[in-house]
Design a protein that fits this description.
195 residues; alpha+beta; NADH Oxidase; 5-stranded antiparallel sheet; 7 helices; 5 strands; 47% helix; 17% strand; binds flavin mononucleotide; nucleus; oxidoreductase activity
Length: 195
Amino acid sequence: MSATVQQFLKAIAARRTIYALKPELPSNVSISDIQEVVQAIIKDTPTSFNAQGNRAIILTGDSHKNVWNSVVDAIEGESGKKRPTSARDEAYGSIIFLTDDKTTEKLQTDFPAWSAIFPSFADHTTGSAQISTWTAIELLGLGGHLQHYNGYVKAALPEGAIPQEWTVQAQLVFGTPAAPPGDKSYIENPVKILN
Ligand SMILES: Cc1cc2nc3c(=O)[nH]c(=O)nc-3n(C[C@H](O)[C@H](O)[C@H](O)COP(=O)(O)O)c2cc1C
């Protein structure tokens, strides 16, 4: 197998959930490096009919702290507060993935025969952007974990930060790794070739 493909597969395998974070960036990484990565991935992730409904914003500093503090306040029960509290206190920032509902609605109008499937295509393409971004930022030396406090996060964003018709899909919380990821087990899951 080519060295490039091996490297690609290695990067995919190296991406892990890292909850133990420090609220800083590795010394050789700047926030504009992260912005560049996210921008490129949002641009190059394929979308149904090339409709380009993926969106992302990056929270750092007070924006990151305030949003996660609002999530902590809004969630009931101690166990539900654990990840938002860690995001607020132990992470440097968060990448918020969104989809533009207007793009999905336009696809539904333009291609009514496939109307029912476009919302799930929006889910597929944001998921693809999320995992590519997660893989890329960990290649940069960051650690990250993926959260889904979607409605809470949307409600906590500053007024006017995003258009109302953007749906929050996920939060990739990131910082400098403070500990390696936990063990991970794998099922037997062979991919068959049918001739
Ligand atoms: C679609 C998707 C949703 C996930 N949602 C959450 C989540 O809400 N909270 C969380 O802590 N981890 C979440 N995860 C992380 C998974 O639990 C994790 O990826 C899985 O256990 C495998 O571990 P790894 O990321 O270290 O490979 C999610 C992962 C995926 C792909």
